[in-house]
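Subject: for your reference before the review

Hello V.,

The reviewers asked for a structural picture of the protein, and I figured it would be easier to keep everything in one thread rather than splitting it across files. Below is the amino acid sequence we used in the manuscript, unchanged from the supplementary table.
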Amino acid sequence: MYVYLMKNLKPLNEEVVKKHVEHLKELKSQGKLVLCGPFTDYPGGMVVITAENLEEATKIAEADPFMASGCKSFEIRTMEQANEENHYLLEE
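And here is what came back from the structure prediction:
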C-alpha cells in the first residue's frame, strides 16, 4: 500500500479539481483507490492506493492532474496496514 501526500503549490481551479476527481474515480474502478481526502489542518491532502511497486505508485501520483498541472507537489510513502487480521503487526 502506498500513500501520496500532497502539498499545495498554486491555487486550484474547478477544471483541475474535476480532472482530479475523474482520476480518483478511475483508480477506484481499477480497485487501486483505498482512501483519499484533503487535510483540514494543513494545506494539502493524501491519496492511499494499492500498486504493484513503488514505480507504479509514483506513476499514479505523477498522473494525478493536481501534480500534472503543477498545482501540488507530492511525497510518496510505503505503508503496511495494521489490522485485526494481522494482529496489528504483532508477532504471536
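For the response letter, the relevant points are probably these. The beta strands are 2-8, 33-38, 44-49, 72-78. The mean pLDDT is 95.

Happy to draft the paragraph if you're swamped.

O.
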